[in-house]
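Researcher: Here's a chain I'd like modeled. Treat it as a single chain, no partners, no ligands.
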Amino acid sequence: MAEFVEGTERLAGIRPAVSMFGSSRAAPDSPYYALGERTARLLSDAGFAVISGGGPGVMEAANKGAFFGRAPAVGLNIDLPREQRANPYQDVSLRFKHFFARKVMFLKFATAYVVLPGGFGTLDELFEALTLVQTRKTRRMPILLMGQAFWAGLLDWFRGRLVTEGMIQATDLDLLQVLDEPQQVVDAIFAYYEKRGFEPLPEEREVLLNL
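Model: Modeled as a single isolated chain. Structure tokens:
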């Protein structure tokens, strides 16, 4: 409960914000690191706070890009058996013991999800967002995958298995967009909110209160 209270109090004014995910194993000379940093810098300069998991790899790249931009860099760090190293590019830093409380913070304060290539943790966050949006347990928002080549096989499997066998509706795939360039991410988020603004609508505010 303390993690929910502190997270809500610290992040309440951090809006609009974009949650970014990707591999903790991406080295600073990795193309994924560079892509994350460029994307976060553009988002920050456009006025979006950038929320990451606070660790190394793409998380660090996201925080670094935002840290040197206009809007805050936020790190939601997690205590792990093998201690996660907090990256130094955090204007706002929180620490969690529980993954479920941390996940709520990623979703509750995000106006968009940007997902770069990553492993199980990245996929976990992606599927959590898809599930909650699909079941209307959180508000609909852009869920943007970066890297057509990386995600192509998974999306083919979605179409070939999940849709074909009736596990999901074909329209559920509309919850996702796949992009390659940082500016495309910024443009896609602005396009989504162009006619309605970034603040939650009254019905969305009710959903977020019960997230």
